[in-house]
């Protein structure tokens, strides 16, 4: 009589077990690798209460970042502008626009617009914009070409290894103070020379010890 289950099937449970274990390891690896912040945060682009476009206001109209992010050179936080900054223009520009309804309401009711944060480090990490701007790191190095963004998204991982990559070798990311907010920056041929001068002049030494960023 032919065997219904050939002999090798005796080892089937073992194969299933090995296969399942491999599968679990694969799943764990998948989440550990692709679920790491390096992958999860890049591209994050939340909805905003107003369809404000950096591409229009910065790319086309040519506003400087510091017109709105006024504290970025002086404070840890870059801060998002108050409604009054928008109304400097929009009390006379596009006054009938439906897209600006929430802005006019915010002004009339004296209630700030509730922008959703795009970039957000965990609270146990210390970060300071002014230290980076004064040293000569341009906005573009950490936020990408914002002037081309219709809606802001996170361009860089903001992970610990990303911070450390630059802290270990800041020279390629340093620019003269006049180019801090320039987008699509084309460094001159003697960029490294300029950077070395900046590093000496300003005694630039980004922290790489734990307490530098975890205070
Ligand atoms: C006319 C005002 C204005 C100008 C000029 C402006 N921004 Fe903004 N920016 C805003 C507003 C409003 C928000 C909040 C809404 C949003 O995220 O789009 C914002 C958000 C951002 C964010 C995301 C903040 C977060 O929540 O993480 C970044 C990064 C940013 N701006 C960078 C820049 C850079 C770089 C420039 C210059 C190239 C610039 N901005 C010029 C008004 C401005
Ligand atoms: C320096 C002047 C200026 C400032 C400051 C400014 N805008 Fe504008 N904005 C403009 C101009 C010019 C247009 C184009 C108007 C048009 O297309 O008719 C525009 C267009 C817009 C539009 C699109 C309107 C539509 O109907 O298509 C929105 C939304 C907008 N701005 C939001 C904002 C917000 C929010 C702020 C503040 C963070 C702001 N703007 C600050 C000048 C400005
Ligand atoms: C060295 C990297 C780096 C540079 C350079 C940099 N940023 Fe940021 N930016 C960040 C990080 C990281 C955050 C998130 C901070 C947090 O969550 O505490 C952030 C947050 C922001 C925010 C949200 C508000 C805030 O402060 O949390 C705005 C707006 C912003 N940056 C604008 C700018 C502008 C404009 C420039 C250039 C003048 C600039 N940034 C340069 C890394 C950088
Ligand atoms: C593109 C380069 C670059 C990146 C990316 C970068 N940094 Fe820096 N960082 C610098 C430079 C340059 C300095 C200035 C060092 C100096 O002036 O001695 C600095 C200084 C600092 C300081 C010291 C500030 C002070 O007040 O003493 C801290 C803290 C810091 N960075 C945290 C971070 C964190 C956290 C991240 C990642 C979220 C980050 N940095 C990403 C280049 C960078
Ligand atoms: C240049 C800044 C910087 C330095 C220096 C630094 N860290 Fe971090 N660290 C960060 C940032 C940014 C994060 C948050 C990463 C994220 O959200 O993905 C972080 C996260 C962590 C975490 C949380 C783990 C995780 O994956 O979320 C631990 C633990 C940690 N750091 C330990 C250390 C130790 C230990 C040192 C010294 C050897 C150190 N850090 C030095 C910036 C730094």
UniProtKB/TrEMBL annotation:
It comes from the Bacteria. Keywords: Membrane, Transmembrane, Transmembrane helix. Residues 125-214 form the Cytochrome c7-like domain. InterPro entries: Cyt_c7-like (IPR029467), Multihaem_cyt_sf (IPR036280). The chain crosses the membrane at residues 12-34. CDD domains: Cytochrom_C3 (cd08168). Pfam families: Cytochrome_C7. This is Cytochrome c7. It comes from Caldithrix abyssi DSM 13497.
């Amino acid at each position: 009589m032919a065997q219904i289950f050939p002999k090798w099937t005796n080892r089937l449970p073992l194969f299933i077990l090995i296969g399942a274990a491999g599968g679990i390891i694969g799943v764990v690896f998948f989440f550990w690798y692709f679920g790491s912040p390096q992958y999860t945060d890049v591209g994050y682009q939340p909805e905003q209460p107003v369809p404000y476009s950096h591409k229009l206001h910065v790319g086309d109209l040519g506003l400087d970042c510091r017109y709105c992010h006024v504290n970025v050179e002086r404070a840890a936080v870059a801060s998002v502008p108050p409604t009054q900054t928008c109304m400097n223009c929009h009390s006379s520009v596009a006054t009938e626009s439906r897209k600006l309804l929430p802005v006019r309401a915010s002004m009339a009711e004296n209630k700030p617009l509730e922008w959703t944060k795009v970039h957000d480090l965990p609270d146990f990490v210390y970060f300071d914009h002014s230290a980076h701007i004064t040293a000569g790191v341009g906005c573009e190095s950490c936020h990408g070409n914002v002037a081309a963004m219709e809606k802001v998204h996170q361009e860089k991982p903001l992970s610990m290894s990303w911070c450390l990559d630059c802290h270990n070798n800041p020279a390629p990311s340093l620019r003269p103070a006049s180019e801090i907010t320039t987008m699509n920056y084309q460094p001159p041929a003697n960029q490294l020379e300029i950077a070395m001068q900046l590093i000496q002049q300003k005694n630039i030494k980004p922290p790489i010890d734990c307490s530098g960023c975890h205070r």
